[in-house]
Structures are given as structure tokens and as C-alpha cells.
Amino acid sequence: MATTFTLIRPEAVERGLIADICKRFEKRGFTLVALKMLRPGPDLAHGHYKTSTSEPDKALLRAIADGPVVAAAWRGPNVVAAVQTMVGAAEPANALPGTIRGDFSIVVGRNICHGSDSP
User: Fold this and answer.
1) Do residues 112 and 74 touch, judged by C-beta distance below 8 A?
2) Residue-by-residue DSSP string for the chain
3) What's the Cα-to-Cα distance from 14 to each of 59, 70, 97, rounded to whole Å?
4) Residue 72: CA atoms inside 13 Å, Cβ hemisphere, count?
5) pLDDT tens profile 107-116
6) Can you tell me the distance from the alpha carbon of 57 to that of 49, in angstroms, rounded to the nearest whole number?
7) Does 114 participate in catalysis according to the annotation?
8) What radius of gyration do the chain's Cα atoms show?
9) How far apart are CA 23 and CA 19, in angstroms?
10) What is the DSSP string of 51-67?
11) Which of 6, 22, 53, 109 has the fewest CB atoms in 10 Å of its CB?
12) Which of 110, 114, 115, 116 is catalytic?
């Protein structure tokens, strides 16, 4: 059993997709262990992307910082890899139908959901 982090981004919150996204993880059999809606602010938004090899895009940081976002922790077997697969490719044109981004994303900078690549 492992736990991983997801972030439902502002564009998904604005479009009323919170329940649809959470339901996908629940239907897969994962357990929601924490959920919080917040406006991260600039420092937390920058910290979220600090592990990146390059400086994050300012428009991306602003979009996340202004929120609101929904942060969640999900627990289950192989949850990290499964969430990555379920979220799909960052580029909407490459995100397969049936993935969260494939079904809901339109533009790469507004790609609906983030799924951590680690526990």
C-alpha cells in the first residue's frame, strides 16, 4: 500500500470537475485519505514545481497560485503508477481518451489535474 498526491487544478475547479475526477480514483478502488480546497499563493505554487529541472513558467505559477485548487491524498496498491496512467499525458493532443486529461484537457498549460510521480 502506498499514498500519493493529486492536485485538481483551477481550470477543473472552475469547470465543476472535482467530483468527476475524484470518482474516477474511487471507482479504481483507491481510498481518499485527505482532501483540501485552497488558494496556494505564490510561495506554495513555486514549491510545488521546485523539483523541476528548469524554472516553472510564470503563467503556470500564477494559475496555480490564484487557485482555487483541490489537493488530495489517495491510498492503494500501486497507486502512484496507476494515478499517473489515469491522469494521462501532459499534452492534451497526446492524452489518450479515457484518461482525465484525455477526456477533459484542452490546452497544455491548463491540463486539469496533476498526479505525483512518487509516494
Assistant:
1) no
2) -EEEEEEE-HHHHHTT-HHHHHHHHHHHTPEEEEEEEE--HHHHHHHHTTTSSSPPPHHHHHHHHH--EEEEEEEETTHHHHHHHHH--SSGGGSPTTSHHHHH--BTTB-SEEE-S--
3) 17, 11, 22
4) 24
5) 877 789 999 9
6) 10
7) yes
8) 13
9) 6
10) TSSSPPPHHHHHHHHH-
11) 53
12) 114
- Residue 29 Cα to chain centre, angstroms: 18
More confident residue, 104 or 90: 104
Mean pLDDT of 72-98: 95
Contact 6, 31 (CB under 8 A): no
For residue range 3-15, what is the model confidence (pLDDT) as tens digits? 999 999 999 999 9
What are the pLDDT digits (tens) for 32-80?
A: 999 999 998 778 777 776 655 666 677 777 777 778 999 999 999 999 9
pTM (two decimals): 0.88
How many whole angstroms separate alpha carbon 52 and alpha carbon 68? 22
